[in-house]
Amino acid sequence: MVKPNGNADLWMPCGHDKAAEYLYRDHDGTVLYGVARCRLKGNGCQGFQQWRPDPSERSGRRWSLYGDDGRLAVKLVPYRLPELLAAIREERVVMICESTSRVLTSLSSRTATSPAASTPRRL
Ligand SMILES: [Zn+2]
């Protein structure tokens, strides 16, 4: 969450500070979309916001996974897809967790999460 200039990028559309950010990458490591978790939840805030890279935006991201036509504009992938593919190639045990944060607190590089656990919502 630290920009190249050293400033932390904590801004979220809900108005709360960002507490964590999870990047969903394609098989080659390209960021397809991200999920940001805010520090507060409730009072109309879902606690999570999704974004996708968009070079036409000043911030470089658009806070929606949907295009102007209302259709999903990204390919949904499991969290840590490159690591998941490597584990499959190496015939390692893979654990599928229910939430992204649990992937990070579980058995290190052997975990992924199902995209259904973080089904995008129209913002
Ligand atoms: Zn919030």
Explain how this protein is built.
There is one protein chain. This protein is an alpha+beta fold. It has one domain. It has 2 helices and 6 strands. A 4-stranded antiparallel beta sheet has the order 1-2-3-4, with no helix packed on it. The chain has a two-stranded parallel ribbon with strand order 5-6. It is globular, with a radius of gyration of 15 Å. The C terminus is likely disordered. The structure holds zinc ion. The site of zinc ion has 6 residues, from loops.
Tags for this entry?
2 helices; disordered C terminus; binds zinc ion; 123 residues; 4-stranded antiparallel β-sheet
Beta-strand residue percentage: 15-25%
Report the span from N to C terminus.
22 Å
Low-confidence region ranges: 116-123
Sheet with the most strands?
Answer: 4 strands, antiparallel
Ligand set: zinc ion
